[in-house]
What does this fold into?
Amino acid sequence: MLDHAAIEKFVNDALVELGVDEADVSPDAALDDLEIDSLDTVELAQAIRKDLKIPVKMKDFDGLDTVGQILRLCYEKAGLE
It folds into this structure.
C-alpha cells in the first residue's frame, strides 16, 4: 500500500541512485542544487511510473524545482491528496 512515507523513501532512494548525497535530500532541496538535470528527471519519472505504479508523465515535472514539489506531485497522482 502506498502512503506518504513509502513515496518519500522511494524518491529519496532514487535520488541517491542518481548520485545525490543522501544528507542533501530534503523537501526544500532545489533540484538544480542537487545537480539533477533533465535526463535524471526522466529516469526518476520512469522509475516512479514503473516501480510505484503512479501515473506520472514527463510533462507533469515541468516547472518543478524542489524535491518537495516532486513528492506533492506523487501524492496527488497516487490519490493521497
Q: What stands out?
A: The two ends are 15 Å apart (CA to CA). The mean pLDDT is 96. Residues 54 and 78 are 6 Å apart (CA to CA). Helices lie at 4-17, 38-51, 67-77.
